[in-house]
């Protein structure tokens, strides 16, 4: 079974691409959702986050996302602290998830494969690319953030051009090219590779 990463900058359309692979019957693990679940349910992680960022990090037992984001997206060091707490647990749980899948290949969707070091052990990585102006607009609409808040978050990720160069394949999601044919072509390639 092949383990394929799926990445891209904030607002690039990773989740849309992941959903289409899911419709093709491919198991998809969304690392951001898994990380949120871990932050909500893993007592050790919760204690570390409270120790690092204060008791305001949780309200009624749930992560106070706005409070945490207000700290970590303004300070790269604080973001690194949060990632050091959450990423190792997320990586371990995603590896366990992979072991239980029975498909020709699986997709692990994450924004920070290269930044977190979790690209190791993957058989290849698909990048999703979109122009910065579209990414900003999409995230502003989706998350009800200001332009400056979106740019703050974009600045915490490695440059999109560099990220795409590190990927094995790239899907262009610029609202000019159709993404479904690009995904179907990659799906066929993955099925061929998994049968080799």
What does this 3D model show about the protein?
The chain has 196 residues and is α/β, with parallel strands linked by helices. The chain has helices spanning 14-23, 31-41, 43-53, 65-72, 76-99, 113-116, 132-143, 147-154, 160-166, 179-195, and strands spanning 2-8, 28-30, 58-59, 62-63, 105-109, 124-129, 169-172. The strands form 2 sheets. It has a 5-stranded parallel sheet with strand order 2-5-1-6-7, with helices on both faces. The longest helix is centred in the middle third of the chain and has 24 residues, at 76-99. The mean pLDDT is 92.
Estimated helix fraction: 55-70%
Most strands sheet? 5 strands, parallel
So what's the overall shape? globular
User: What class do helices, strands and sheet pairing give?
Assistant: alpha/beta
* Regions with little confidence, pLDDT below 50 for 5+ residues: none
What share of residues are in beta strands?
A: 5-15%
The tally of helices reads 10
End-to-end C-alpha gap? 10 Å
């Amino acid at each position: 079974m092949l383990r394929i990463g799926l990445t891209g900058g904030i607002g690039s359309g990773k989740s849309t691409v992941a959903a289409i692979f899911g419709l093709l019957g491919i198991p998809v693990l969304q690392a951001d959702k898994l990380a949120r679940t871990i932050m909500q349910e893993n007592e050790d992680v919760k204690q570390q986050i409270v120790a690092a960022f204060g008791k305001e990090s949780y309200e009624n037992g749930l992560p106070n996302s706005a409070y945490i984001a207000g700290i970590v997206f303004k300070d790269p060091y604080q973001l690194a602290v949060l990632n050091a707490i959450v990423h190792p647990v997320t990586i371990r749980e995603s590896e366990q998830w992979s072991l239980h899948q029975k498909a020709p290949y699986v997709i692990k969707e994450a924004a920070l494969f290269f930044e977190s070091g979790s690209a190791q052990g993957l058989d290849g990585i698909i990048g999703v690319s979109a122009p910065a102006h579209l990414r900003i607009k999409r995230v502003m609409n989706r998350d009800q953030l200001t332009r400056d808040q979106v740019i703050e978050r974009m600045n915490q990720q490695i440059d999109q051009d560099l990220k795409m160069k590190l990927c094995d394949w790239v899907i262009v999601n610029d609202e000019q090219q159709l993404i479904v044919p690009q995904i179907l072509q990659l799906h066929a390639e993955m099925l061929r590779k998994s049968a080799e």
